[in-house]
Amino acid sequence: MVAVIKPAIQVRSMRVEDLDMVSALENASYEFPWSPGIFGDCLKAGHPCWVLCVGEAVAGYGILSTGAGEAHVLNLCIGPDWRGRGLGRHLLGRLLDVARWNGAERVFLEVRPSNPLARTLYESMGFREIGRRPRYYPARHGREDAIVMALDMAEGHIEK
Asked: Count of domains in the chain?
C-alpha cells in the first residue's frame, strides 16, 4: 500500500510579499478584480488579511474588517486551481474565528447572484440573505446587484 501524503494547509497573516500572488489569484478569479493597491491599503489599514497556503503555494486569501461588534468579509477567494477541495470553507471558518476573537456578534458580506457556488458556501456556514444592494457590482453589461448576507454569531450553528 502506498501512503498518500497531502501537503499541509496553513492559514497565516498576509504579508506585503504575498501581494503579487494574491493579486494574480484575484485576476484569475474575477472579471472585475481588486487592484494590487486595494490589497496594500487593506494591509496598511490593519484589516485582518489572511492567506491560505497549501504547502508553499498561496491558494487563497480572505480579508475582514472588524469593529463595533460587527465584522464584514471584504474579500474571500480560492484560486481556480485549488477550488473544490474544501479550502473556501476552511478559510471562511478561520475568518469567522477572527471575527469572534475581535468581538463580532454579527458578520456581513456581499455576494453576486451570478456566483451560486459562493452563495451555497455562505449559506452552508449559516449566512442568510438580509437584503440587496442594487447595482452594487460592475458587470459586463452594466451593473449587478449584491446579495447582502449576515451571520448571527450567537446562533452558533456554523457548519464546518
From this structure: 1
